[in-house]
Amino acid sequence: MEDQQPIVKLDNIAFGYPGGTPILKELSLAVYPKERIGLLGPNGSGKTTLFFIIMGLLRPTAGTVEVFGSRLWEEKDFSDIYRKIGLLFQDADDQLFCPTVLEDVAFGPLNMGKSRKESIEIARSTLADLGLEGFEDRITHRLSGGEKRFVSLATVLAMEPEMLLLDEPTTGLDARTRERLMDRLAQLDIAYLLISHEMDFLADTTDKVHAMEGGKILTDTTVKLHQHVHAHIHGSHPHEHK
Amino acid sequence: MIDEPFAAGNSPIHREDPRSRVILATLFSFVVALSQAFATLGAALIFALVLVIAARLDPKKLIKRLLPLWLFLILLWLVLPLTTTGTPLFRIGPLAGTREGIILCAQITLKSNAILLAFTAWVATMNFAKLGQTLDQLKVPEKIVYLLLLTYRYIFVIEAEYGRLLRAAKIRGFKPGTNLHTYKTYAYLLGMLFVQASARAQRVHQAMRCRGFQGKFYSLYRFEAKTADWIGAAVQLAIMALLIGIEWKINSPL
Ligand SMILES: Nc1ncnc2c1ncn2[C@@H]1O[C@H](COP(=O)(O)OP(=O)(O)OP(=O)(O)O)[C@@H](O)[C@H]1O
Ligand SMILES: [Mg+2]
């Protein structure tokens, strides 16, 4: 796997919000095609911030972000990464801003220069893939929390990304809906980074789990949940898994 | 907060092309607002009532919607006849009720009812999403259209946020009264609401950028007008022309 080109490569990233304390320090991470990585870390440890940096929404104060080998922030225009990486926001109300579901799902394809007809087709088939037939004309703000989550996922998948960033996709979902989400994720054959506080969900949906702590990703203590269900996320206590 | 009690339905008005409905409603408002003659205003009110019946609006919900207007009109009837100068008709103590005042009140009453009823029949019978698409197709500047649509989308979120903040305060024993503590608490709540709304706006913008938004909105829908739509629009336009004709005949400046 390591001889392939990574989709995303972060090198020694540092970041802090203006006027705040540093949140990320010397953070490095690479995601290769088809890799499914879980991200675990306490509240406020900078997981969402990390996603924003990968998407080019925030500029790191040090270090480099590479997407498919080209460096972000060096060229002026990197609108291209939005076609390749899809971000599912922590709060679905941020993601769904169009009045109806179909308009929202078609928003990305339209922006990518697809015709109206093509966009509608893509939106319909994406919704159908997620089991959301008949949702086209629903009013977005009247959807339930779980429905909002799935429609958000549809809006991101409609852009046919090569990698997904999923920010706590399970919050507010009941056990059944979580199961459904799990099935859908298993069917995707693209790489993703998934933030979650739920160990068992991570164990089922990802191949490895990184822990975030102190502004870094503790790759040395990569948590192997499949072999070892109780997770250790303390980098200061090295712990061998064989 | 904003419900759309009339948006769902299958009346002839609901089926009418939304563009002609918006144009007709706008035209009608201008005609009625600028007319003076009671014949015109009466005819306009009757026309509006016919529209309401054609749209099969639920009378209870309609009255509920008109109630604030009627309360306002009652206030007007109490004040305007006594404060407008002109020929006195009756006296209450030192105040004189004038003919001009009563005419003005009657005009305002007819105009406001006719316009509100017509708007409810034509425009409230489509949901906000459709109204947005319609305005967009009528070449209303997209900034205005999206301002409207985004306001509509997030007013519920902001309302929910306000509810949460207020609950949080109440849970900790906050009881509104007329004291400094109450005002301060409401000021904090309001401040928090603004902060959250602007943070929300920023995140929504980020989410839009993540989906390739570069400042240009593309709309998804195109309405196609059918022959029946043209005929319907023509008939309603003719009625409007008739209203203008009546007004012209009675109050012609020539
Ligand atoms: N726009 C902002 N301006 C200033 N500080 C911020 C901003 N957004 C987040 N922070 C701060 O940055 C830190 C990391 O935030 P972030 O949202 O990345 O955490 P997180 O790991 O996603 O947490 P959670 O698990 O609660 O979602 C927090 O301390 C937060 O207060
Ligand atoms: Mg977060």
Keywords for this entry:
heterodimer, A: 242 residues, alpha/beta, Rossmann fold, 6-stranded mixed beta sheet, 4-stranded antiparallel beta sheet, 8 helices, 22% strand, disordered C terminus, B: 254 residues, mainly alpha, 2 domains, two-stranded antiparallel ribbon, 72% helix, flat, binds adenosine-5'-triphosphate, binds magnesium ion
Would you mind describing this structure in some detail?
By secondary structure, chain A is α/β, with parallel strands linked by helices. In chain A, the strands form 2 sheets. In chain A, strands 6-7-8-3-9-10 form a 6-stranded mixed beta sheet, sandwiched between helices. In chain A, strand 1 and strand 2 form a beta hairpin. The radius of gyration of chain A is 18 Å and the shape is globular. With 254 residues, chain B is mostly helical. Chain B is 72% helix and 4% strand. Chain B is built from 9 helices and 2 strands. In chain B, strand 1 and strand 2 form a beta hairpin. The termini of chain B are far apart. The chains are: A alpha/beta (242), B mainly alpha (254). Chains A and B meet through helix 3, helix 4 and helix 5 of A and helix 6, helix 7 and helix 8 of B. The complex binds adenosine-5'-triphosphate (ATP) and magnesium ion. The site of adenosine-5'-triphosphate has 12 residues of chain A, from helix 1.
Briefly, what is this?
Chain A has helices at 47-54, 81-84, 92-95, 101-111, 116-129, 145-157, 175-187, 199-205, and strands at residues 8-16, 22-31, 36-40, 62-67, 70-71, 85-88, 163-167, 191-195, 208-213, 216-217. Chain A is α/β, with parallel strands linked by helices and 242 residues long. The longest helix of chain B has 31 residues, at 180-210.
Write the layout of secondary structure elements.
The complex is a heterodimer of chains A (242) and B (254).
Chain A: E1 8-16, E2 22-31, E3 36-40, H1 47-54, E4 62-67, E5 70-71, H2 81-84, E6 85-88, H3 92-95, H4 101-111, H5 116-129, H6 145-157, E7 163-167, H7 175-187, E8 191-195, H8 199-205, E9 208-213, E10 216-217
Parallel strand pairs in A: 3-8, 3-9, 6-7, 7-8
Antiparallel strand pairs in A: 1-2, 1-4, 4-5, 9-10
Helix pairs in contact in A: 4-5, 4-6
Chain B: H1 12-15, H2 18-34, H3 38-54, H4 59-83, E1 88-92, E2 95-98, H5 99-122, H6 128-137, H7 142-171, H8 180-210, H9 227-251
Helix pairs in contact in B: 2-5, 2-9, 3-5, 3-9, 4-5, 6-7, 7-8
The structure holds adenosine-5'-triphosphate and magnesium ion.
The site of adenosine-5'-triphosphate has 12 residues of chain A, from α1.
